[in-house]
Design brief:
Radius of gyration of chain A: 22 Å
CATH superfamily of the largest domain in chain A: FAD/NAD(P)-binding domain
Mean pLDDT of chain B: 84
Distance between the termini of chain A: 23 Å
Helix content of chain A: 25-40%
Number of domains of chain A: 2
Shape of chain B: globular
CATH class of the largest domain in chain B: Alpha Beta
Oligomer: heterodimer
Strand content of chain B: 15-25%
Number of helices of chain B: 19
Bound molecules: flavin-adenine dinucleotide
CATH architecture of the largest domain in chain B: 3-Layer(bba) Sandwich
Largest interface: A-B, 48 and 43 residues
Distance between the termini of chain B: 68 Å
Shape of chain A: globular
Helix content of chain B: 25-40%
């Protein structure tokens, strides 16, 4: 089967590239292992957390780009990033939308009682921006072991309520189980009135991200109607329902526009002829199938995504065996302290302005292969608070520069 | 039995609100007192005898209060008959031995139980074979204690058996000496052909020349130490954790007491004692420093690495003179590779270096080649105290036997004893010899029973299978090691805990593949919700992650890097902990 574009990797960058290509009416195959890193981390959209508070993002980005010529953002520019973000925002129609706090980073509460800066966040998290000492009742669930209302309450100096769902007959609850309950009106009524009774003048109610997968805003509004106060979610340990909502919406959008999806299959071989990739072989047990395309985009992420692999003496790229900008010896990969910004996070694939991978002499290796997302070198996304920004902007421009 | 008095406990008297501590003599012929098992009841009896009824109820209430805060007693000045310093296997073993002889003691430990070498070793239940050629005396002690521990501590032991394998580069010459030496000290051996060995342990190097089966095993040091503590406590001993001995107070030719610091509160106080036992292991010389004494021990760091799966059923040893990287010990669901031997000057602040990691992999993979592709979950190290005998240059050649020093003979200090060196598995013998010496000094003859009386918990199984069976529908905190929420709640209720580490020592939390990456948040959540937190949770969380990192970053490659990316993503990303 032949495509205009084959995208390898289903994280946020691959999804963004697919969206961009489909908007340009291309025939796209998107292939990946699963929901990608989305269910692990992408609760909100970080663009650049490390800018001074109260500086607006645009100015922060200008400064950053000036000081970091090797950063993926420098290949895109501030306007380019903004254009990519609008494209992202456009696929989330009300009521579940993404917003920023007047063009600045918002500080949203976390599940250990700290605040983290982030740029875009979904409507169900918006209430968190108002959290202050004493104004929020934090609600947890007995048996849900990834969210401790008491822990947060102590840090935020708020009160908490731990609901017990004994009649559900389970001692252990998961986020997906709770969110399925939350989709039932009866359940919302029950816990809503328990919460209402526990309120002592608080104007906000916080809970783990369990407002449901399908219509979280319905659940939110319903609970608000019962309790009379604003309800919001506080992100916690993966798997993240917030990320699943993102993934599901992307999937819906892409399928409507005729994408072909291959989920859960492994690429067994790439076929290369001189500087061109002709196609890939995918293993569908028990047979192997060949897919060809004019262009390829590699968006396989870092180690979790499977884009990079660390052997003891070498870091390698798994699909095209591209050279990885890195140091050889393992004891140089990490800092002495956990909280150091480890050198390994800066390793990755280096690319030219149109995202073509480069060899050690700085020459493009393939004519028709582009590399996007966090696998790129030149950034420390975790440290910078830039993960989703890099994924969205390189995903958008990687596809756009290739196809226009 | 002859009736003679033993001065073994301190009495108290209440006068108004003031407590006066006094030593009392208890007659051997008065059974009601001899069979006392707890200090509280001794207090009560004393109060009954010597104090008018009106103050008795007051006294009883006071007793209840002391029970709650033993530390308060210290502040007011405490006397002990026997004071043991060091809460490793040796110290705990002595407390138990003495308690079982009717001599309660106080044990002081600056950290938690097993926070020294007893919690940082290879976990090998030696058969003694390793030392048969080079140190027959140590070998003899090992096989004898090996047999005893199987009887008294089956719940701490996995009877795996062990193999000594010869590789082509080793030849068979050492093997023959080895067999003769084992026979001489009474270690049963069974030679196997390479084919037989490979059937038993398929991951072994297929080129091996021969294998010899010996009764090695795996031992869980934490459970071993805690079981000794429990038995000692049940028989009247007291333990002060997180309390450090700062100096020893001597008058003429006798130790009068020690100066101690409560590390929880920072307060200092003095404890008087009639006998002082130095069971501080590698710290033994440091401990004696305030007296200007020195036993002369060298410190040797040994490093180990934990694989994320169990590589075989048995302990695998290299059949050659003891050297680096020649033992692989199975332990629950993992295997532990070890060890190295590096002279160090400092007892604290040591870590596993990249060259040790390379050496361990290089050497152990000669025995089990798949180690080259293995995932490691942690590296860690411990410090051995080695007693320096004249003329021995190589640390591996220094005896692994123990030293028991009567400072009366050596330095003219009548009531001070040091016990150090040895092995984890000879802890009981070390305790027996120390207790014998104490009894001799007290002028009594009561025999040791620890070789035949099983430790508490001996009827429980340690197997994962059992844990699985007991899980039922209980909430699990740690998914790697299946630790239940219940289990932690019970510990929180029953024990004096100062810090997170104390809980980690008492459960298998953070010992599995993720090394606590996930469950630590849950544990802190639980502590907070039950009002038992140890202070600023996020600071504790950071401290835990840094400590964990020390063991992880030396062995971080392969698929472990993925998991670490996740853990970093959680704590630095989602939680924005900086
Ligand atoms: C790398 C390595 C591998 C080993 N492998 C094995 C093995 O496989 N099998 C085996 O049988 N043995 C093994 N051993 C030996 C075994 O671990 C030790 O012999 C044993 O644990 C010693 O116990 P201990 O109680 O004497 O000393 P420790 O466990 O070190 O206890 C001493 C305690 O004293 C405390 N202390 C020190 N100073 C003070 C003070 N001033 N005040 C209060 N407390 C103080 C310390 O905190 C410490 O907890 C190994 C040792 C090492 C280092």
């Amino acid at each position: 089967m032949h495509y205009d574009l084959i995208i390898i990797g289903m994280g946020l960058s691959g999804l963004m590239a697919a969206k961009t290509a489909l908007d340009l009416k291309k025939r796209v195959l998107l292939i990946g292992k699963g929901m990608g890193g989305l269910t692990l981390f992408s609760n909100t959209i970080d663009i650049l957390g490390r800018i001074p508070e109260n500086l607006n993002l645009k100015d922060g980005l200008f400064e950053w780009i000036k000081d970091h010529p090797e950063h993926p953002y420098s290949k895109i520019g501030v306007e380019g990033i903004e254009e990519a973000l609008s494209s992202f925002i456009s696929i989330f129609p009300p009521p579940y939308t993404f917003q920023s706090l007047n063009g600045r980073n918002a500080k949203l509460p976390t599940a250990i009682g700290t605040f983290r800066p982030t740029y875009l966040f979904p409507s169900t998290l918006a209430g968190g921006t108002y959290l202050k000492e004493g104004n929020t009742l934090i609600v947890g669930f007995k048996g849900f072991k990834d969210f401790y209302a008491g822990y947060m309450a102590k840090e935020f100096k708020c009160r908490h309520l731990t609901l017990s769902l004994q009649d559900e007959g389970r001692s252990e609850l998961t986020a997906t189980y709770l969110s399925r309950l939350m989709e039932k009106e009866g359940f919302r009524e029950r816990i809503g009135s328990q919460i209402k009774n526990a309120l002592k003048g608080e104007s906000l109610v916080a809970m783990p991200p369990i407002l449901g997968l399908r219509d979280p805003m319905d659940a939110k509004k319903h609970l608000e109607a019962i309790t009379g106060v604003e309800v919001f979610e506080i992100p916690t340990l993966p798997p993240s329902l917030l990320g699943m909502r993102l993934f599901n919406r992307f999937k819906e959008y892409l399928l409507e526009r005729g994408v072909d999806l291959l989920i859960g299959n492994k690429i067994s071989k790439v076929q290369i002829k001189s500087a061109l990739c002709e196609g890939i072989e995918v293993y569908h047990p028990p047979i192997t199938r060949f897919y060809s395309a004019d262009h390829f985009i590699l968006a396989t992420g870092r180690f979790i995504g499977g884009g990079l692999e660390a052997e003891r003496e070498r870091i390698s790229e798994t699909v095209f065996h591209l050279p990885v900008w890195s140091t050889r010896s393992q004891d140089k990969w990490f800092g002495e302290n956990f909280f150091d910004d480890h050198p390994i996070h800066g390793f990755g694939i280096s690319v030219d302005p149109s995202f073509r991978p480069l060899d050690s002499e700085g020459k493009p290796i393939f004519e028709n292969v582009r590399v996007i997302g966090t696998i790129l070198s030149g950034h420390h996304s975790l440290y910078e608070g830039s993960r989703e920004g890099i994924e969205i902007s390189t995903g958008y421009w990687g596809a756009k520069r290739l196809l226009e | 039995m002859a009736s003679f008095p033993i001065r073994f406990v301190t009495g108290i008297e209440a006068k108004g609100n003031i407590l006066i501590f006094l030593s009392i003599a208890i007659s051997r012929s008065e059974p009601s007192l001899i069979s006392l098992t707890s200090w509280d009841s001794i207090y009560i009896k004393l109060l009954k005898k010597s104090i008018p009824h009106s103050s008795l109820t007051k006294g009883m209430n006071l007793v209840k209060r002391w029970k709650r805060s033993f530390f308060q007693i210290i502040k007011m000045g405490l006397k002990a008959e026997v004071l043991i310093v060091g809460g490793g296997a040796t110290g705990a073993g002595i407390a138990r031995d003495l308690a079982r002889r009717g001599i309660p003691s106080i044990l002081i430990e600056k950290g938690d139980f097993a926070s020294g070498a007893s919690g940082r070793n290879h976990g090998l239940l030696h058969s003694g074979a390793r030392y048969a050629v080079t140190d027959p005396q140590a070998a003899k002690e090992c096989i004898q204690e090996n047999r005893i521990l199987r009887k008294i501590a089956p719940h701490c032991i996995e009877e795996t058996g062990g193999l000594f394998i010869s590789l082509p580069e080793d030849g068979l010459e050492f093997r023959d000496r080895f067999l003769r030496a084992c026979e001489k000290v009474g270690i049963p051996t069974q030679p196997l052909s390479p084919e037989e060995a490979l059937t038993l342990e398929p991951e072994l190097n297929p080129h091996l020349l021969s294998a010899i089966h010996v009764p090695d095993g795996a031992i869980d040091p934490f459970t071993l130490v805690l079981s000794n503590v429990k038995d000692a406590e049940d028989h009247g001993s007291k333990f002060l954790l997180h309390t450090e001995v700062l100096s020893i107070l001597v008058e003429k030719d006798k130790v009068k007491g020690v100066r101690v610091k409560d590390l929880c509160t920072g307060e200092e106080s003095t404890i008087e004692t009639s006998f002082l036992i130095n069971a501080t292991g590698a710290w033994a010389d440091y401990f004696l420093k305030s007296l200007g004494l020195r036993i002369g021990i060298a410190l040797s760091k040994g490093s180990m690495m934990i694989t994320n799966r169990r590589l075989g059923q048995r302990v695998i040893n290299r059949c050659r003179p003891p050297s680096d990287g020649d033992i692989i010990v199975p332990n629950h669901t993992v295997s532990i590779l070890g060890t190295t031997s590096i002279r160090v000057e400092e007892i604290e602040n040591f870590e596993v270096t990249p060259s040790e990691v390379s050496l361990l992999i290089q050497e152990t993979s000669k025995m089990i080649p798949s180690i080259n592709g293995c995932r490691f979950i942690r590296a860690y190290a411990g410090i051995r105290p080695l007693f320096i005998e004249q003329g021995k240059q190589n640390d591996r050649a220094i005896s692994r036997g123990f030293v028991l020093i009567d400072h009366e003979e050596r330095d003219g200090i009548k009531n001070l004893i040091s016990i150090t060196g040895g092995k984890l598995i000879t802890y009981r013998l070390m305790a027996e010899k120390t207790s014998d010496l104490i009894c001799q000094k007290m002028g009594v003859t009561i025999s040791c029973t620890t070789h035949s009386v099983p430790l508490p918990g001996a009827n429980q199984s340690l197997a994962l299978r059992e844990r699985l069976k007991n899980l039922g529908r209980k909430e699990i905190l740690c998914d790697c090691e299946l630790v239940k929420r219940d289990e932690v709640e019970k510990i929180l209720k029953n024990e004096k805990l100062k810090e997170l580490q104390d809980i980690l020592h008492r459960t298998r939390i953070a010992k599995g593949t993720c090394q606590g990456g996930f469950c630590i948040y849950r544990l802190l959540g639980l502590l907070n919700e039950s009002g038992k937190d140890f202070g600023d949770s996020n600071k504790i969380l950071k401290g835990f992650l840094e400590e964990r990192w020390k063991g992880i970053h030396p062995v971080l490659w392969g698929s472990a890097v993925k998991e670490e990316e996740m853990i970093e993503g959680i704590y630095k990303g989602i939680f924005n902990l900086r």
